[in-house]
Amino acid sequence: MSTAPTVNVSGLRNYALVTAAYWGFTITDGALRMLVLLYFHTLGYTPLEVAALFLFYEIFGIVTNFFGGWLGARFGIKLTLYGGIALQVLALLMMTPVNEGWAIALAVPTVMVAQALSGIAKDLTKMSAKSAVRLVIPQNAQSALFKWVAILTGSKNALKGVGFFLGGLLLTAFGYVQALVIMAAALLVVLLSSLWLPSGLGKVKIKVKFSQLFSKSPEINILSAARFFLFGARDVWFVVGLPVFLYSVLNWTFQQVGGFLAIWVIGYGIIQSMAPTLLKRFGAGYPPQAGTIRFWTGLLTAIPAGIAIALQVGLAPGPTIVIGLLGFGLVFAFNSAVHSYLVLAYTADDQVSLNVGFYYMANSGGRLAGTVLSGLIFQLYGLVGCLWTSALLVLLAELMTLRLPNPQGTQEARSL
Q: 187: closest CA among 262, 125, 96?
């Protein structure tokens, strides 16, 4: 008789409820970003002003990543998950009055505060969903854990892409205010599912000193620094510069901009989830070592530089951007997948939550820097300037990885 570990029915139900709530939130989060970006650009906001609208979103995402694990352990996943969704509803409703009649001095702070709530909401729901996987999978079922985490991560990226498309579609079909109200109403329906989730899920009594929230592992610190530059390199041209360029320079419609970015994010999520299988099948650095991440980061450096050169020599911008972005997404997905493996491979069993929390705080910091630079550099130097900045940031990530040793083969690494 098989003695393989199983997941009980209540655990499956809890995981399904948490995952469904996370999916609903993810769609609205992607839609909100596209909606705000395109709407305020049409109101005449400069790229830097548009980037400023997302500043608090990223800042408060960093803070929430830092303390999210403690909040979940102290108050339970039900409170953090549905508290995050409630904050998102509030953020959506806060932005409905803002229109072309508002002065920038009033509109920008209002939207920034709403985006701060949205940033907190995003990382509370993300932390809750990922923690739920660990709570419903038995400790000795590492293969099942890896499979379920891959499903959750891949579906999240795909649905965020759907959200990008939905944001452009809702803006065109219903307008700014009605689009926000529709998304808020959908999330209120998601909140009703909280009635079936046990209040004590994930609630534990753990005392963690504040100093322990900062990683003391050299490998984790180096990898986190590389992650900071890597995600800054993506967002420095992807967040503001690229969609504004597609809309204002190439004259794409809202649906075309949202649809294209949606396809990119969905494809990125698929490749990311397939990366371990592809690396193993082709023997390309499996299991990943320090040299694996150096290879993929070095390869990524050439792509934004190549796109910038192609635009500067006068190649057709439309095909250049489309082909270049597809190549960037493919290589970036492998980078992200290998990074996610290495953070576990370098982590001792009793330091997993602290190190991973610190690592994703660096991830959020890179997104913040990339968001601000995307608006500033695009306003001053256009998309070509954003691309050269992206290449520089990837090069800095590559230099960080030169100091990484090979993993020692911890239990977590072997389970992957």
A: 125
Report the distance separating Cα 197 and Cα 218, nearest Å: 39
Residue 333: inside a domain, yes or no?
A: yes
Residue type, 315: L
Q: Is 57 within a domain? A: yes
* Residue 197 and residue 311 in one domain: no
Task: Report the C-alpha gap between 275 and 306 in whole angstroms.
Answer: 24
Spatial contact of 31 and 187, defined as CB atoms under 8 Å apart: no
Q: Are residues 353 and 405 in the same domain?
A: yes
Report residue 146 as tokens.
């890896």
pLDDT band at 311 (very low <50, low <70, confident <90, very high): very high
Q: pTM score > 0.90 for this model?
A: no
pLDDT in tens, 28-67: 998 998 888 888 888 888 877 887 888 888 888 888 877 7
Does residue 149 share a domain with residue 36? yes
For residues 262 and 161, the answer to whether their CB atoms sit within 8 Å is yes
The set of residues, in sequence order, having a beta carbon less than 8 Å from that of 390 and lying 6+ positions away, is 233, 234, 236, 237, 304
Distance, CA of 395 to CA of 400 (rounded, Å): 9
Is the CB of residue 118 less than 8 Å from the CB of residue 163? no
Range of the structural domain that residue 124 is part of = 7-204
